[in-house]
Amino acid sequence: MLEKRKFHSKTRRNVCIVVQLSPKQSGRIRKMGSPTATAPWKQLLLDALRSNSSLKHSSFFQLATVGSNGRPANRTVVFRGFQEGSDKIQIHTDSRSRKIEELKHNPLAEICWYFTDSWEQFRISGIVEMIDHSNPDSLKLQQREKAWHACSVKSRLQYLGPTPGLPYIGEHLTDENSLDSSTSPVDSFCLLIMDPDQVDYLNLKSNQRMTFTSTQSDSQEKCWALERINP
Amino acid sequence: MLEKRKFHSKTRRNVCIVVQLSPKQSGRIRKMGSPTATAPWKQLLLDALRSNSSLKHSSFFQLATVGSNGRPANRTVVFRGFQEGSDKIQIHTDSRSRKIEELKHNPLAEICWYFTDSWEQFRISGIVEMIDHSNPDSLKLQQREKAWHACSVKSRLQYLGPTPGLPYIGEHLTDENSLDSSTSPVDSFCLLIMDPDQVDYLNLKSNQRMTFTSTQSDSQEKCWALERINP
């Protein structure tokens, strides 16, 4: 029989957690039910990032979307951190890339993030918001500007190149000096923000698997229901 | 201006290749247009597997599918080799897993395979065939049996466990002796075979990207059109 527990955080950034526990479940899951401002899967993810930090590729994950033709699409992208004070995941992309068309058609995406050192997998599913230069919200444009300035000059130069996916017609040379540190984001720079609503966590070393499902409570706080499932 | 070349293989396993070249393109792409029985992207993939072979995780990739609700799904799976004499990719899975429902609804999938040592990415898209115990084709059942016997006993034991994704109700112990080497595949063992029709190859070291698109020619041989595109 399952127990249910409900915790409400008293902090500014509220997170409520509903834990479904079977009598045999480990202490680790119980602990995650304690009041906290951090989504419980986010803490696991931060731990995984820390324990795999020696590997450059631990900040890469695969993002799946659906094309207007119903075909799934899947590519490697770089984790650009969480949006401040939230569990929303930031990604940078080129506004001219095919994933933008796909997300306009269907904003749902699933991240698959496998940590090769700790043998942990996070499948993070949610809606992706696109913030490009035409966004009417000045606050969102500020977020985009901040993301742009957090990039290295080398990363920024990519957005000055030819349209990704179009036929190659020869080498394109970009002048590094055309982008000094004060330059505003170029039009092709787009900030993607995924708001997760489902997370599936698998640990291949301990052979444990858990799902985290978000629901919005009456008080507008985000609630996460945890359940241990068969791997 | 683009040149076009067409090559026809004289070998038993025919592959024809159409190469679209711009004058500035590298010798590497030209070479891939020479007659061969191997799909041109397959040779690149075999090279990547070889140059990343010291890493256990180089045989893992991410498989994206689409759920009946239109949501993309994405998970890490293990590469189980090519089907003999072809460019079809083999994967093993549990018939009770959610990806089976998804593939029954929409058999299209996209693999994203990132090689962490050589910085190469293969996005391989195609239709996935499911071969489970109920398959009426005796030849396909033989393929499934062969795949089962190629697995380690530890891998096979997974298929005797409780249904993946259902609530965990305590530890499930499986007797290793219940599976001796002669035992036939259990009902939950399913062989997936992806038949690729599009491959997008990206090399982050050389900053080169190519697409390979398959078309079936009149003579039923598989044709691959190559094009270099902007990364």
UniProtKB/TrEMBL annotation, chains A, B:
Its cofactor is FMN. Keywords: Flavoprotein, FMN, Oxidoreductase. Pathway: Cofactor metabolism; pyridoxal 5'-phosphate salvage; pyridoxal 5'-phosphate from pyridoxine 5'-phosphate: step 1/1; Cofactor metabolism; pyridoxal 5'-phosphate salvage; pyridoxal 5'-phosphate from pyridoxamine 5'-phosphate: step 1/1. InterPro entries: Pyridox_Oxase, Pyridox_Oxase_Alr4036_FMN-bd, Split_barrel_FMN-bd. Its EC number is 1.4.3.5. The keyword Disulfide bond does not apply. It comes from Eucalyptus grandis. PANTHER family: PYRIDOXINE-5-PHOSPHATE OXIDASE, PYRIDOXINE_PYRIDOXAMINE 5'-PHOSPHATE OXIDASE 2. Pfam families: Pyridox_oxase_2. This is pyridoxal 5'-phosphate synthase. The keyword Cell division does not apply. The lineage of its organism: Eukaryota, Viridiplantae, Streptophyta, Embryophyta, Tracheophyta. GO terms for molecular function: FMN binding; pyridoxamine phosphate oxidase activity. Residues 39-131 form the Pyridoxamine 5'-phosphate oxidase Alr4036 family FMN-binding domain. It is an enzyme of class 1 (oxidoreductase). GO terms for biological process: pyridoxal 5'-phosphate salvage; pyridoxine biosynthetic process.
